[in-house]
Amino acid sequence: MSNKSILIVGAGFSGAIIGRQLAEQGHKVRIIERRAHIAGNCFDERDGATDVMVHVYGPHIFHTDNQRVWEYVNRYGHMMPYVNRVKATVNGQVFSLPINLHTINQFFKTTCSPDEARRLIEEKGDKSISDPQTFEEQALKFIGRELYEAFFKGYTIKQWGMQPSELPASILKRLPVRFNYDDNYFNHKYQGMPRDGYTKMVEQILAHENISVELNTEFDRQEAGDYDHVFYSGPLDAFYGYRHGRLGYRTLDFEKFIYDGDYQGCAVMNYGSVDVPYTRITEHKYFSPWEKHEGSVCYKEYSRACGEDDIPYYPIRQVGEMALLEKYLSLAEQESAVTFVGRLGTYRYLDMDVTIDEALKTADAYLASLADDSKMPVFVVNAR
Ligand SMILES: Cc1cc2nc3c(=O)[nH]c(=O)nc-3n(C[C@H](O)[C@H](O)[C@H](O)COP(=O)(O)OP(=O)(O)OC[C@H]3O[C@@H](n4cnc5c(N)ncnc54)[C@H](O)[C@@H]3O)c2cc1C
Predict the structure, then answer these.
(1) Where is the UDP-galactopyranose mutase C-terminal domain (predicted)?
(2) 68, 23, 35: which is closest to 207 by C-alpha?
């Protein structure tokens, strides 16, 4: 098998991992990144004033059930134990999330056992809704109006800029309540934070003699023909010059502030009320609980519609966007030497573990296509 010349657009987890896997098989990889740094949205750096590790594009907690992915991140980083415990300020009180027995007992001023709480929540559920169509109906059926309004309604309106009655029921697939005191936000087997940060981890992934990385470098489609294959982790619609219009995203604004001491005593505090303009406050030193810092760096997080010059964060994927996506997928499916990858290339929200898994599978697929001389797919995953 001859060595191939590969162009990768984007130095986030998707681009870096595909690059590394191919470089290790002897292929020459050039990675271009429009930003001034690697690691994409997982970029973190130490704050100059406090030395706290700051997750610049919003907090990132690593969690997975995937053994291959867990071994991969442990090969390139030193993972420290971390359990995400989220709090919520609602109606002048602080509660524990996700809604658990503590939340229920505090909220309803009860001392319910698990079985009693189960019965209570069942009673609260709206039995007149037999076939819920919207997020709101689903929530009302599952948990009733009081918990829905306190913990879901306002937060959803702020996060998505839409009424829960306009969102599909599928968003809330399962009963979002635990009938015990488990307040671990995630259910995955593995959870942790990289001791030296995600940027360092990506730096280690990129450290290979067959990889060159160029920052502050914009992709130019004319260049694609100079390579045997292109892996593109930028926005799918941008690849086609937005010719059918822009895929809708939500963007985030982070209002950073420094506090001399301990601001809120936890990593994440949600704000459920629409009267508070931000969705949450994150205190970054709590993401590295093994470190000690006097000062603190916090982010107030605001969500809004993504404009042309904003960073696209969360794909909206409602009916209108899906119709537009279909047009771009049809265009993309005609490509012969390009594979679209990652959260922007496939227009999906992806947690890091899914991103890493898909990047590894994409590299596997490319190597297999070389081995049996078959065509490399334009999408290794289903983006629909
Ligand atoms: C607010 C927020 C919080 C999150 N929190 C978590 C979390 O707690 N846990 C978790 O598991 N996941 C989390 N994620 C998901 C995580 O950010 C993604 O899984 C990950 O960033 C995806 O990596 P990627 O390489 O596909 O994309 P990105 O990280 O976006 O990397 C793509 C790169 O391509 C570059 N690029 C784009 N277009 C071009 C171009 N034309 N030319 C050159 N370069 C280009 C971009 O600058 C970018 O650096 C969160 C996401 C968000 C938005």
Answers:
(1) 150-349
(2) 23
The rounded distance, in Å, linking the Cα atoms of 211 and 204 is: 12
Decide whether any atom of ligand 1 lies within 6 Å of the 41 Cβ. Answer: yes
Tokens, residue 50: 């406090």
The identity of residue 50, as a single letter, is: T
Q: Which protein residue has the closest C-alpha to ligand 1 atom 41?
A: 219
In which domain, by residue range, is 153 found? 86-171
CB-based contact 5:35 (threshold 8 Å)? no
Q: Which pLDDT band holds residue 362 (cuts at 50, 70, 90)?
A: very high
Q: Is residue 154 part of a domain?
A: yes
The answer, yes or no, to whether residue 293 has pLDDT greater than 70, is yes
Q: Is 280 assigned a catalytic role?
A: yes
Distance (Å) from CA 1 to ligand 1 centroid: 32
The CATH code of the domain that includes 205 is 3.40.50.720
Closest CA to 136 of 123, 108, 119, 155: 155
pLDDT of residue 133: 93
